[in-house]
Design brief:
Bound molecules: glutamic acid
Structural class: alpha/beta
Distance between the termini: 82 Å
Radius of gyration: 32 Å
Helix content: 40-55%
Number of helices: 18
Largest sheet: 4 strands, antiparallel
Strand order of the largest sheet: 4-5-8-9
Oligomer: single chain
CATH topology of one domain: Arc Repressor Mutant, subunit A
CATH class of one domain: Mainly Alpha
Shape: elongated
Length: about 450
């Protein structure tokens, strides 16, 4: 690898849709590679397609990269560089490397500008794929512009890469067939040839190339609303098709920059595994303090907070319970939607069938709840899960654990699934717990 030359990379997206995960990953590899070599990272908006390019898509791309901490050193917009392309088309025509021609047999009224193909073998060594040889004869005299004002992709890319002195072109493998054409044009224009690295595609978990139709794929910036942390998304994407060659799975941007090695990028596609993304997110959430975690989930609770049942001290107590079960915000959203947190704030309804343990009967259930009420009333220590458990455990073992623990848990939460009764007792506190047991008993005695 030529490392004497200053490293300059570019991310060159066409803003024709919201920025997706594939683009983010390509940008990330360009960013990591540039920063690893103390180089420059350029963003170039390839917005020459006037019909499909939209400023809001460009903005979405920039917002996404900013959110993820990939700061660019320079920004260009191709639509503002028309004159530069014109100049270079003229140069190619003047040097007989291009000529005006009839478009095609079907449409001879629309002339185009064609590149005069020298018909030779183009060879290059891709930093990921190795030696590549391509006979360009089969390409014929390909089109580089519709007219002098309207260049097409191959021409603009080569002119920009040349003038911006891009040293390394890192882009998706779908571009590999463009490279021979672009090498021919750059040679005709006398630009220095950059190094190429064609990055493996991201594969769908269902096979084939990952696409916008895969259900787990959303515009990258929207993962932010789902509570995916930027560090986690960066970490996740860096590991698709690359790894540091050791056991590490959690790496910060700085660590990635320090250790990123383009020669370790694999040749074949890397799978997109959304569960892995959520797992990585949880590893970053684990680093949060309880206060930080409370802030993280706070937006989801604004509605609840404005209701009379809301109690901040209860909220404080359930943070660790929520936290344990949270990979990302959608998990908390689901807990809220499913009503799994309601009983912390309000007396749940009691279904007098469900409260009876499957091996017990109504009379037994009443007896055990009365005993629990008695034991808890008489309990005088600090009301922690462990200590309350101690006070109930002998009785529970005596009558069979399920016979006591099931109705007790159900009386407190009104749900088949909830944390264990001791956690619930400690969280709800002595007074509320006793009220709930009394309420369950009154329902059973009706
Ligand atoms: N603008 C092209 C695209 O969006 C990428 C150009 C390149 O990386 O060479 O696919």
């Amino acid at each position: 690898m030529n490392t004497e030359k200053k490293v300059i990379t570019r991310m060159a997206p066409s803003p024709t849709g919201k920025f997706h995960i594939g683009g983010v990953r390509t940008a990330l590899f360009n960013y990591l590679f540039a920063k690893h070599h103390n180089g420059t990272f350029i963003i170039r908006s390839e917005d020459t397609d006037k019909e499909r390019s939209k400023p809001e898509y460009e903005e979405n791309m920039l917002d996404t990269l900013e959110w993820l901490g990939m700061k660019h050193d320079a920004f260009y917009r191709q639509s503002e560089r028309t004159e530069i392309y014109q100049e270079h088309i003229k140069k190619l025509i003047d040097s007989s490397n291009a000529y005006e021609a009839e478009a095609s047999k079907d449409n001879p009224d629309m002339p185009v500008i064609r590149f005069k193909n020298p018909n030779k073998i183009v060879k290059f060594t891709d930093l990921i794929l190795g030696d590549i040889e391509f006979d360009t004869t089969e390409l014929g005299d390909f089109v580089i512009a519709r007219n002098i004002e309207t260049p097409i992709y191959h021409l603009t890319v080569v002119v920009d890469d040349g003038l911006m002195e891009i040293s390394h072109i890192l882009r998706g493998q779908e571009h590999i067939n463009n490279t021979p054409r672009q090498i021919l044009i750059l040679e005709a224009l006398g630009f220095e040839r950059p190094e190429y690295a064609h990055i493996p595609l991201i594969m769908s978990p269902r096979g084939g190339k990952l696409s916008k139709r895969d259900p787990e794929v959303i515009p990258a910036y929207e993962y932010k609303d789902q509570g995916i942390l930027p560090e986690a998304l960066v970490n996740f994407l860096a590991f698709i098709g690359w790894n540091p060659g050791d056991e590490r799975e959690i790496m910060s941007m700085d660590e990635l920059i320090a250790d990123f090695d383009i020669s370790k990028v694999q040749k074949s596609g890397g799978a997109f595994n959304i569960d892995k993304m959520h797992w990585i997110n949880k590893q970053y959430l684990n680093e949060f303090s309880d206060t930080e975690f409370a802030e993280y989930i706070a937006p989801l609770f604004t509605e609840l907070k404005s209701t009379p049942i809301y109690d901040e001290s209860v909220m404080q107590k359930i943070i660790p319970i929520i936290r344990e079960r949270t990979n990302y915000l959608i998990d908390v959203q689901d807990m809220i939607t499913d009503g799994e947190l309601d009983y912390y704030f309000a007396q749940p309804e009691i279904d007098t069938e469900k409260i009876i343990w499957k091996k017990d009967v109504k009379e037994g259930t009443i007896r055990h709840l009365e005993e629990a009420h008695e034991l808890i009333s008489n309990f005088n220590g600090e009301f922690t899960a462990d200590l309350v458990k101690e006070s109930l455990w002998i009785y529970a073992e005596e009558v069979g654990k399920g016979n006591l623990l099931w109705p007790l848990r159900y009386a407190l939460s009104g749900r088949d699934k909830s944390p264990d009764p001791f956690t619930l007792l400690a969280t709800l506190g002595k007074k509320t717990s006793l009220e709930r047991i009394t309420f369950a008993l009154s329902e059973l005695n009706k």
